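Q: Could you fold this chain for me?
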Amino acid sequence: MHATHLDNILGAARHADCVSAFRAALTPLGIDTFSAGEVDTAHRSRSTFTVIDWPESWRRFYFTSGILERDPLVENLGLYDGRPFTWNDLRADRRLARLGTEGLDLALQEGWRDGLCVPLHRSGTHYGIVSIVAREAIPDAHREVMIPLCLAFHSKIGPLARREGFAVPPAGLSPREIEAIGLVVRGKSDRQIAEALGISTTTAHEHVERAKRRLDTHTRAELAAVAIAFGIVAM
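A: Sure. Below is the predicted structure, expressed as structure tokens.
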């Protein structure tokens, strides 16, 4: 069954099919809440979600409780050197300051007892991530099954999201700004971007400048590098 789920995830041709295959793999393990994307612990504005598959109850909690600003998973990615960890691992970790457990306590009060974070360390403070939330403690046996499923899912869903659209606009970028970034990556000037998109040179320049600010970059070269690294555009 495990191999079948892996095959279904990796064989998905569409974003929705990949999400459905991953959900089908997690449902027998009692999981109905997950997300995936790219985060930078030093530059939160660069975060991109390739999928957010959350029930309304968790979505409402995450965006209204204040946990968004102090997500304990993101805060503590560096503690585990790119290794998967659970919420219970965090609670038991003596290195974790009390402030770091406040988000976990809030979630517990709302009925979510455990979670699993599967990070992929890119470089520096940049990580790929799959995050799973559970209403029951995650047994070690389930954890070992979930990790390869998460890695397969992350590798597959990124290119599909880039092709079909992100779960939420990456870094708040508009579709036009993403198009402009794609042309910057190809070495195009503002004038050439304007011609390609059918807009004025001034507007093209504004798209590029706003994209630089949203991704916390200072040059066009840095903008291109960050956008490629976070899977927002392809080379």
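A (continued): The radius of gyration is 19 Å.
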